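Thread: Modeling a multi-component assembly for a lab meeting

Hi all, long-time lurker, first post. My supervisor asked me to bring a structural picture of a complex we are working on to next week's group meeting, and I have zero experience with this. I have the sequence lines for every component (473 residues in total). Could someone generate the structure of the whole assembly? Inputs are pasted exactly as I received them:
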Amino acid sequence: MSNEYILRQEELVENPTARIPICLVLDVSGSMEGDPINELQEGFNVFMNTIQSDEVAKYAAEICVVTFGGAVEKKLDFASIERQEIPILSAEGLTPMGEAVVLAINLLDARKREYKSAGVDYFQPWLVLMSDGESTDDISLAEKKVNELTSRKQLTVFPIGIGASANLRELARLSGGRPPLRLKGLNFKEFFVWLSQSVSRVSQSTPGEKVELDLAGIQAWGAI
Amino acid sequence: MGSYMIKSSGGRVVGRSHLLVKSPCQDDFSHKIKFNSGCIALADGAGSKFYSHLGAKIVTRKLVEICLSEFDKIDALINDHPPKAAEYLVDRMRKTLLPVSVKKKIAVTDMACTLIFFSCKENRYIAGHIGDGVLFLRKDGEIFVLSEPQNGEYANSTYFVTDSNAASKFRVYSGLLGRKFGVMAMSDGSAESLWSKQSKNPSLAAQRMFEWFDRMPIRKMNEIIQINLEQVIRQKTTDDCSLVMMTNG
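Re: Modeling a multi-component assembly
Sure thing. I ran the full set together rather than chain by chain. Output:
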């Protein structure tokens, strides 16, 4: 057939890729000093690089980082991953986990509103919560907000405990029913590889498709 | 409208994600012309339902058959009481799927799919839509969106003809056609290239395809649609892509 009947690229529309907003809420309190913070940093670098090398996920995933260690800080704001600089993580201070989760929820909510006003489709937001201890602030407001959102299927939380001192019962209060997992040793890289693969699966899902997480893959990094 | 001959054409291709795992195309379509009447129907099977391609095939064929044989009845229902028309059409689809589900020992919902249809008779039309996909109508030379996608909050959620509340989500339309008309139904995979989610407008490509169909015989148009689905439209999505058109040009 002659090229006369082949549509030209400029005749097609450019629709934005549907986004998956992900907020990583990371414990950088004093107890993370040393190997834990170094391994967390390396794992996070792997995550960002793996997403960037994925043809679909690099346009779909939008990542934000909130840290809690002494103060609660938005360490990385939502943006296209190609424009983001990986933040340097350092450990210090107490563990204001409740305040960090509330900030993460507010940031995810604001991002959803931006998608809506710009006519960009999006998937259910993810909140990844990682801690090696227990909170030093009140988590009841965070718990209430998480439960409201997860019961309406408006948020998925991945609660991850780091090391033997992580308070999994407290993480469970902030997970909306998903049982927390304990990281095996300092297998941050394995966790972040699994997380990036899960993002890739969701970003390629189509309407009506129920995306199953790779449960077998969890064994490489986590235990109940 | 009588001085023009109605013609229809369509195509579908399996999406790149389904090609990788060797699963079938879950989009399907049907079209038929009968004297001064015509009907096109297109359905997109639910991603996670194993028999959704079968559901898409069954409902599109049944819908075309119903519209051509019961046009006046459905037109009257839509004009008198649109919810009843939606209920009637959804019920007919369910009754068609039910014996298949019994025979295959599966649930009707295992054949979940979206549905778009457009049917004309002389200078009147009826149309219906549940879920994603888009329906363009060209009337008096201008292409506009007759029916937009209706999805849930998230990108991978939509409504299916097999949903328990399908009748309440099934949108129906009726109206009069000009002397010369064209209609194009597409799945969400094709809509990625042909419809702007932000401006809500059809692409120039849609205009081009109507122009080609105005001067091409059906067999040639079938080839044009198929090759553009394969070489152009599929490249902008990982999803299955399908497209069905009808004109009286």
